[in-house]
Amino acid sequence: xxxxxxxxxxxxxxxxxxxxxxxxxxxxxxxxxxxxxxxxxxxxxxxxxxxxxxxxxxxxxxxxxxxxxxxxxxxxxxxxxxxxxxxxxxxxxxxxxxxxxxxxxxxxxxxxxxxxxxxxxxxxxxxxxxxxxxxxxxxxxxxxxxxxxxxxxxxxxxxxxxxxxxxxxxxxxxxxxxxxxxxxxxxxxxxxxxxxxxxxxxxxxxxxxxxxxxxxxxxxxxxxxxxxxxxxxxxxxxxxxxxxxxxxxxxxxxxxxxxxxxxxxxxxxxxxxxxxxxxxxxxxxxxxxxxxxxxxxxxxxxxxxxxxxxxxxxxxxxxxxxxxxxxxxxxxxxxxxxxxxxxxxxxxxxxxxxxxxxxxxxxxxxxxxxxxxxxxxxxxxxxxxxxxxxxxxxxxxxxxxxxxxxxxxxxxxxxxxxxxxxxxxxxxxxxxxxxxxxxxxxxxxxxxxxxxxxxxxxxxxxxxxxxxxxxxxxxxxxxxxxxxxxxxxxxxxxxxxxxxxxxxxxxxxxxxxxxxxxxxxxxxxxxxxxxxxxxxxxxxxxxxxxxxxxxxxxxxxxxxxxxxxxxxxxxxxxxxxxxxxxxxxxxxxxxxxxxxxxxxxxxxxxxxxxxxxxxxxxxxxxxxx
Length: 625
Known about the structure:
Layout: H1 8-21, H2 27-49, E1 62-67, E2 72-77, H3 84-92, H4 98-105, E3 129-137, E4 144-149, E5 155-160, E6 166-173, H5 188-198, E7 206-215, E8 223-231, H6 248-257, E9 267-274, E10 278-285, E11 302-306, E12 309-315, E13 327-332, H7 348-371, H8 373-396, H9 399-402, E14 408-410, E15 416-417, H10 419-425, E16 432-437, H11 441-445, H12 451-455, E17 460-463, H13 468-475, E18 477-478, E19 481-485, H14 496-508, H15 510-519, E20 526-529, E21 538-543, H16 548-556, E22 566-571, H17 576-583, H18 588-606, H19 613-624
Parallel strand pairs: 1-7, 11-13, 16-17, 16-19, 20-22
Antiparallel strand pairs: 1-2, 2-6, 3-4, 3-6, 4-5, 7-8, 9-10, 10-13, 11-12, 14-15, 14-17, 18-19, 21-22
Helix pairs in contact: 7-8, 8-13
């Protein structure tokens, strides 16, 4: 029979299919298996309306047969088959989908949905094959026909022999080249892996004869190699089962099988949504952070399935960054896929699913925080930093979603507490939520700046993550209570009598403080009497939006931002060190020595570097001799 040419637009599309539409060659097997599943589904639909046709699911399967000697890979199905006209129309005109036409004719029932929508997946076979041969016999027909093509050059259709209804596709696998190894698609282990990855949940058995070893009869510890037909796919996905029939162990096994992590998940979330968008999802909250979680290399995302067929391994659009720790999958039939079924069109369905998933995760975390506090704290130790970054990121857009999930160590409770728990314990006269930011809790507990707040009986939250203070600055307030650093210029707790006393001290020592400001020119904004110090001689406080801790963090960043806090050197005028300082106010050398020592002491308390350590040690030696 004479070779027929593809239509011009089909020829161009085929060339595109082979060279650029699909990003991974292994996709071809997913597409051909999906088409085979569609063909069996069509018989199922026919049986719904044809009393003469009985659908016995056990009679239907897909068979994969590699042949290394002939370099062929055969995909056989027991589906509805194609007539000569259907071979012509479905395979001769690219992007005219027989599945789509069938879908329009017959209403979907009983949860069975035709996968194929574009009619282009079949041609992905040409990415790995020089010749594609399709032999098909349609349901109700005694005749079979063979469609054969070597690619864009065209195709032939000829009569053929086939004993059973269904379709057989034979791919003549391309020879290896220096750049590409096509042999992998003839290897049993590779085919098994591809099927497990993309087609594990196809609803019909995918079978293959595999080599296995059996004990040799009559011989101890001897084995013989045999060929044995095995079913390679699970068929029934866990997410389509009723929640009531699944145990925690079932979910954990699924987590391990999918290699979502090497730990045991803290919590699973099983979603069956039937609202504006229909989808199933199983989500996991891991116990431990992946080794690359806080690096640029970490890739967030959920596995995305369309009717049980894996479309994307990591769909990042389904998770906000602050919930990027979540592992799992989503399966939906409502997704608008692009022509290669490899990527999503950004549409309303995807947005709705993502929004719903975000709310489900948030609810699960809130529930864990309320009912399983120990488990939540374990989660928070691993992923709390990401939640805090979520508060800070995108100009605080998500702060309302996340603020009730935050935990900080409390000076009073000596453990992690929520902002709500802190506020609920605040005395009536307390105006602010107080916090101290630094490298460690041990260092923060010793800060001179905490003395006055603790003496008032107020609780302090300890911030030890570099993102903490930035997140709180973005929150600004919680339940109408503003946040206040213990190192801020005005703590808002001084009595009028304290303020008057401090003002009097500053007036009395104005000349001395001015001289000290001159000595520390460029290092501090001012020197003043402290309202907060009780037992310590000196400390640094900050005025303005940038705190001393924020300055440290910004300077430590790779780009080394030169941002400085407006530092104030606070002097405890009731301390004996200040009396020694006053005694030498007329001795310029001694005053400079003592001032620099006090300033460097304040830097050390804050964990800031001393500009000249040698000079500092020399100054200490001077006062010792």
